[in-house]
From TrEMBL:
Family: Belongs to the metallo-dependent hydrolases superfamily.
Pfam hit, one: Amidohydro_2
GO MF term list: hydrolase activity
Signal peptide stretch: none
Domain Amidohydrolase-related, residue spans: 35-340
Protein name: Amidohydrolase family protein
InterPro entries to which the protein is assigned, alphabetical: Amidohydro-rel, Metal_Hydrolase, Metallo-dep_Lactonases
């Protein structure tokens, strides 16, 4: 199995272009406009996934017209104080976005990182706004924490009780005051804590990334049939909070336990639908298309599935819904939530 141009962007992960190229499919509904509301640019040492790599994926057949960049600790300004180092990421992504030529998917929004617990949060947010050149739409201070991080390929860095921290809740509420969204990433066993947060900050739009990351490794390996009904109940309760919207994707990470990255061949879109379709359909049933948006989570999910195959799978899932619902799932919800 050959290694692609962007190897080892996270220890233990390789992005395998030739492996992914073994499965090819005709693009479904190639003219449908798509906003990809969750991707990264990766620049850590020799591991690089930047604009050319993103353009190759977004230009691989589907009509991706806009994207939203999500913080991933790239491009930090290590000359700045710790709380302002992430502003370097916002500034560099804004600079890169300005160089994208016509005809390519445009980075239309940036979700940056800030420590929402700080007393001087407004000063940090002001710095991000200035650095973003009109592109800042939200903040992600992820809550992902698991007591068994050695079992995870991409362990979260969240504090154990972050969502209950009064200072953190004040910070999330302040985002709503300023018209910014709060993106999060956490694991399925943190659902109750996130529900309590959502109820505590009703005036802030909370964006749930990656289905709440149902884990399938470590102590959760082989327990998917047990986790699924509990997860369904958790998502139904969360959907009762009108300030929560859901991103549908980011479900092909190795820590989800599908083992697609270990196959001789990468998965097809039919395999995605067969194995994961029930999870997608449940989210759409609970939140409605007006509060759901498909996401790629690239290049993270690229370790397991190719970009055109992923979006073909989404289109097969969406085929069961009407035209207006599809418009929302592929673009409308993302544009409304992020104001792009």
């Amino acid at each position: 199995m050959s290694v692609g141009r962007y190897p080892n962007w996270v220890p233990g992960i390789e992005l395998r272009e030739e492996w992914l190229a073994q499965v090819q499919e005709e693009i479904i509904d190639p003219y449908r406009e798509i906003v990809d509301p969750h991707h990264h640019l990766w620049h850590h040492g020799d591991a690089v996934y930047e604009l050319d790599a993103l353009a190759a994926d977004t230009g691989s057949g589907h009509n991706i017209v806009q994207t939203v960049y999500i913080e991933c600790r790239s491009y930090y300004d290590h000359t700045a104080p710790d709380h302002l180092k992430p502003v370097g990421e916002t500034a560099q992504v804004a600079r890169l976005a300005a160089t994208i030529p016509p005809g390519r998917a445009r980075i239309a929004g940036i979700v940056a990182h800030a420590d929402l617990r700080r007393d001087d949060l407004d000063t940090v947010l002001d710095a991000h706004v200035a650095a973003g050149q009109g592109l800042l739409v939200g903040i992600r201070h992820a809550g992902a924490h698991d007591p068994d991080p050695e079992a995870l390929m991409i362990p979260g860095r969240g504090a154990p009780v972050l969502y209950a921290d009064p200072a953190f809740r004040r910070g999330v509420a302040r985002l709503g005051d300023r018209g910014l969204t709060y993106d999060t990433w956490h694991y399925h066993h943190q659902a109750d804590a996130f529900l309590a947060l959502a109820r505590a900050v009703p005036d802030t739009t909370l964006v749930l990334d990656h289905f709440g990351t149902p884990l399938g490794v470590g102590r959760f390996k082989g327990r998917r049939d047990e986790i699924f009904p509990t997860w369904k109940r958790d998502m139904a309760k969360l959907a009762e909070c009108p300030n929560v919207v859901a991103k549908l994707g980011g479900f092909a990470m190795p820590d989800n336990g599908w083992d697609w990255d270990k196959g001789t061949l990468p998965p097809s879109s039919d395999q995605l639908v067969d194995q994961q379709g029930a999870w997608y359909r449940h989210m759409i049933a609970c939140f409605g298309p007006e509060r759901c948006m498909f996401e790629s989570n690239f290049p993270v999910d690229r370790v397991s599935i190719a970009y055109p195959i992923l979006w073909n799978g989404f289109k097969k899932i969406a085929a069961n819904y009407g035209g207006d619902a599809q418009d929302r799932l592929f673009a409308g919800t993302a544009r409304a939530v992020y104001g792009i």
